Amino acid sequence: MFEHLASCVARISGSSSTGTGFFVAPGQLLTCAHVVARAEKRNDRIQVEYAGSTYEAGVIKYLPAPFPDLALLNLDISDHPTVLLDPALSPGTSLYVFGFTDKYRGGEPATVEYEGQALLDAQSALMKFKGGQIVPGLSGAPLLNLNNWTVAGIVKSTRDRGSDLGGGGISSKTIFEQLPELVDLQRTIHNWDKRWINATQKQRERSADGEKIPVRIVEVLQKKTAAQSSEEEIDPAQLPTKTLFKSLWCPQSLAWFEEGRIALGSRDSVLRIGSTDGRIVDEFAVPESYPSYIAVQGGRWVAAVCYTKLFAVDLQSRNSRSVTLDSAASTYAISWSPDGRYLAACGSNVLQVFDRDLAVKSSHHVGGARRRARGCVGARRHTLHWDRQRPGVEAHGTVRGSGDRFSARCKRERITELGSG
Amino acid sequence: MNALQNSGVDDRLAILWDDGQIEIRRGAEIEASITTRGADAFHGGGPKIAWCLDQTVIACANGVSASVIMWRIGALSYVRRRMDRRVLSLALAPSGSRLALGIDEANRGDGRVETLEVSAIAGTLSGQLGEEVMPEPHLFEADWTALIDSVTSAGEGTQVSFTVALNIPYLNDKIDWCEQAVRKAGADARIKRELTRNHERARKSALKLVDELRWAVERMQEAHFYEREISTVCDGFASVSINAVLGRLAIEGHPRIESLEEFIGHVFGYVKSNLVYLEFESDDGRGFTAAVPMDFLLEVEQLLELGGTLGERHGATTPREKVYAACQLFHDFDYAFGYYDKRRLWIGYVLPQVLERYPHDNIIFSPSKIVRFGLA
């Protein structure tokens, strides 16, 4: 972490004044205004030494001393790490400083303890810290919070150059108030540049005597997968196919209702009746959307689910009608009663029975309470079964778990009789 | 669940589950079942199960693959008839022996309906098919939410308030067992030291896995993977990695990763001959190889079509030959695999392997950056 902080820090010089700065965004160095004050006044060049190279810097923002004493410099460099500023700070927190002093041009550390805020006036608060020697050159150095491994502020002044009396600084809270553009900038940068966060994480993991970070254990278990049964691939020549109908749009539904006739629904929203010699003998435009499920009774009555509509047609008279289903958008099965008098449609929560004219004869909410109790959101598949002994229809189906993490095997146990009418 | 159909003559239900299992149920009781290759997507639409040949054979399609499966109820094996495109729906003729198949379109409006005579293979279905069981996969899985959350919160610039560690009981047990075996063995001290070092390396590899996973999750988030995709890659990578450690420990029945095809077959449950060794290359010259199951490639329609066209003069007639022809002769990755096939290939097979075998700089997370591929 300390090495990482050092890689975010640069030495600033200009007009015989030196100090430290640190990167808060790509190509943007934060320092104290008094570090560059003389150069700014004389319009001199400001030089930044970073990673063995020297760059010329310009001033983006200059907020002079005594308060807030901040300067934001820009320089033509972007491939560098950036500190994470965090206003969270409480008295008694240990802070680590790293900057470039006159004696140690390659960098010198110091540790101090945060005492609290010192108010210049009602609006101007400075950080006060003790217990470390703040020497010339450390102005503009970052104050690393050793509790949460973020930068809590910037060094501004010393109480005494020759002893470890500590000094003063500008907090990250003040920095954000004075340079509000840094709030979003910091969030954006650390979203894609995770070097600081990763260094923090490693430091936390490494600090044996530091705070105990909760560890979440991820159990990696053997996946219970059955070996597949053996499969034999059929030679296409052994089981040839014969093309019956061509030029279709996604043939989504089929019903082969007589040896010589097939009903098919495709995405162009047409219900077709074709013969097995490849001719289309009849066509019906269906309402709303394509027929996703077709049921035929007695070679004469054809019904189809078309999104939220139920469509039915009498092939003899070519009379057709449609009705909006209660279950809307989630109807998965339709079935004619064996005597052809009724048509049942089952969706995620409703089982409806219609007569041939699509008048509703009965409507049942199926399994809703039970499904809600099990935390499920809707049925995905149904099949309908007409009871020949007792008049009525039963819907069988499964419900889908509310979360994607349910395994197929859990869902498998959820087969249930949803209702009867 | 992918499809459900009652028999129409009794109270039995046939069910096709997403993971490929076909079951015959009477109420809650499972009368018969068989495991086939699963689908990784759901397709709605019309009926996909038919009770054929006097309710003795189940024919089914899952709506996302280009094949129909036929299974004589109760048999230990099944047959697959491959088509050139996805089978969207199927319907049985009243006679119970002919099937109509709704075949998806490749270009707008060229979908079709085809029929096939199931009775033509009645002999095959009732005869003794090879009843040997395919190799068992050796996969591992976990709930990766904590890991993904830790990376997400770090990515949002918020402080990570917890750290993540892995517990792999199976691997720990195996290493413990090896260590005990070495302690008990009367081998030379030098050999014992060498073996002990090997065990330490195995433990270190297991510890390092969480960092590797974290790195991979970060990269996948940057590449805008869905959370479910990230979990799938983590499962696959952890499976490959754990099996690699077991292989290095020279535990019987665990091949070493150096014999790649045998190793990948062991992890994912394929025989070696059912794997194709492919090479992928990006525009910036980075590349890697991965073993991919032939079963997966056989489901890639564009590859089959290309193989059919390119392999014609080389006599490629079967789907396998077509896939090999396409992989050998056609190198444009973008054209050979559709968007979803690319993602399935990457998430299911390529990333789990390359994360284990290649340095970070070589790994390409987004399949859209791959431009060339071919037989390795």
Task: Give me some keywords for this one.
heterodimer; A: 421 residues; mainly beta; 2 domains; 7 helices; 31 strands; 47% strand; disordered C terminus; B: 376 residues; alpha+beta; Methylamine Dehydrogenase, Chain H; 4-stranded antiparallel β-sheet
Short description:
Chain A is mostly beta strands and 421 residues long. Chain A has helices at 2-6, 33-42, 172-178, 181-192, 195-206, 368-373, 408-412, and strands at 9-14, 17-25, 28-31, 46-50, 53-63, 70-75, 94-99, 108-119, 125-130, 142-145, 150-158, 167-171, 215-219, 221-222, 230-233, 241-248, 251-258, 261-266, 270-275, 280-285, 293-297, 301-306, 309-314, 320-324, 331-336, 342-347, 350-355, 360-365, 376-386, 393-401, 416-420. In chain A, strand 10 (142-145) and strand 11 (150-158) form a beta hairpin.
Give the spatial strand order of the biggest sheet of chain A.
1-2-3-6-5-4
How large a portion of the residues of chain B is in β-strands, by DSSP E? 15-25%
The geometry of chain B reads as globular
Distance between the termini of chain B: 37 Å
Description:
The complex is a heterodimer of chains A (421) and B (376). By secondary structure, chain A is mostly beta strands. Chain A folds into two domains: 2-206, Thrombin, subunit H (Beta Barrel), CATH 2.40.10; 251-420, Methylamine Dehydrogenase, Chain H, CATH 2.130.10. Chain A has seven helices and 31 strands. In chain A, the strands form six sheets. A six-stranded antiparallel beta barrel of chain A has the order 1-2-3-6-5-4. A six-stranded antiparallel beta barrel of chain A has the order 7-8-9-12-11-10. Chain A has a four-stranded antiparallel sheet with strand order 17-18-19-20, with no helix packed on it. The radius of gyration of chain A is 38 Å and the shape is elongated. With 376 residues, chain B is α+β, with helices and mostly antiparallel strands. Chain B is built from eleven helices and 16 strands. In chain B, the strands form four sheets. A four-stranded antiparallel sheet of chain B has the order 1-2-3-4, with no helix packed on it. In chain B, helix 5 (227-248) packs parallel to helix 11 and helix 8 (301-310) packs across helix 9 (319-329). The longest helix of chain B has 34 residues, at 189-222. The two termini of chain B are 37 Å apart. The mean pLDDT of chain B is 85. At the A-B interface, helix 4, helix 5, strand 13, strand 14 and strand 15 of A face strand 1, strand 3, strand 8, strand 9 and strand 10 of B. Strand 16 of chain A pairs antiparallel with strand 11 of chain B.
